[in-house]
């Protein structure tokens, strides 16, 4: 993949992969997978909130 593609789509693809991992972990397991799903689903939410609040304050 080209550097321009990764610069534009790298973070959105990573957030999508984290979301899929979190959803699959939440559906398939208990115990440790609950923590994996909470972390994997919480990271995109936290980054989105941080980005939204950061832009709003400028």
UniProtKB/TrEMBL annotation:
TM annotation in the entry: 7-29, 35-53
Keyword line: Membrane, Transmembrane, Transmembrane helix
Protein's recorded name: DUF4175 domain-containing protein
Organism of provenance: Pseudoduganella buxea
Phylogenetic classification of the source organism: Bacteria, Pseudomonadati, Pseudomonadota, Betaproteobacteria, Burkholderiales
């Amino acid at each position: 993949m080209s550097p321009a593609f990764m610069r534009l789509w790298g973070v959105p693809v990573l957030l999508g992969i984290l979301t899929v991992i979190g959803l699959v972990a939440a559906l398939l397991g208990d115990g440790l997978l609950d923590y994996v799903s909470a972390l994997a689903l919480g990271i995109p939410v936290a980054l989105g909130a941080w980005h939204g609040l950061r832009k709003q304050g400028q």
